[in-house]
Amino acid sequence: MADDKSLDAALAWRDDRGGGEFWISPDEERFPTLAIRVSGEVADVHYFPRDGHPGFRCLGGDGLPEGGFTILVYQGCDPATGEQTPNEFVVPFDTARAIAWEFFRTKGMSAAVSWFEL
Fold it and tell me: Is pTM, for the whole model, over 0.90?
């Protein structure tokens, strides 16, 4: 992707199940990497700073039941019926997109949200 417009176009794509899984890294490098799983209008976001680091998960859960789960459905999810994701890590898709834009520009972890280190 060359610019914000092409990033937006990529993130707007949805598979036959209404979801998508996106891995974003700078140029030809493997790290840092941003991974976004989308299901409808919600997503979860992982940031991997370097090889061997288990990563960080974006904290969310606003408006979702505490202690509950959201099912993320996208092609390739395991199990095929959908992956249970703790609500504390679920954010609106617009938040995930904003994190992706910042990563695209800075190659770093967004300071606009809170993160949980794994």
Answer: yes
